[in-house]
Specification:
Layout (H helix, E strand, L loop, with lengths): L3 H19 L4 H17 L1 H8 L7 E2 L2 E7 L5 E3 L19 H8 L6 E8 L6 E11 L2 E8 L1
Length: 147
């Protein structure tokens, strides 16, 4: 049987694991997912875009997901809830045109960052979000994490 100190230690370890990065994706995980997405797009664009839309696939992890849009017209080709929307028209709660900024910052061979206010999946409350963006073939893609 555990004493008071031991139970407190078990409780503290359990709490700290849940509180630090277990519930939501991290910056490192978002960037790594984008790098995996780039490799998948280079290998087979059509298959990669299908994989990005798989609800329980390898490109979905907690609040992290890959989205892509055509470079030419900004129409989203992969997104959990906005597929078919115009990325260039997307604005955050403060009116910041983050979709246009994503399209502007995306460069082949580089990973840029765009910060804006956006709700976590399943919420309506905007929070600070950073999205890593790049361009691969004719696609502008990103993965964002919430701070």
């Amino acid at each position: 049987m555990l004493g008071k100190l031991s139970w407190a230690a078990v409780f503290a370890v359990t709490l700290s694991a849940a509180a630090f990065g277990q519930e939501y994706g991290t910056a490192e995980e978002a960037r790594a997912m984008l790098e995996r997405a780039v490799a998948a797009l280079k290998q087979d664009k059509a298959k990669a875009l299908e994989m990005f839309d798989e609800e329980n696939g390898q490109f979905r992890d907690r609040d992290l997901y890959v989205f892509c849009a055509n470079e030419s017209d900004g129409i989203e080709t992969a997104h959990p809830t906005h597929k078919g929307f115009e990325l260039s028209e997307m604005k955050d709660a403060n009116g910041f045109a983050f979709g246009m900024e994503i399209m502007r910052k995306a460069e082949a061979g580089k990973i840029g960052e765009v910060a804006y206010m956006w709700p976590r999946p399943g919420s309506d409350t905007p929070v600070h979000k950073i999205t890593y963006v790049t361009k691969v073939t004719d696609q502008i893609c990103g993965v964002g994490y919430h701070k």
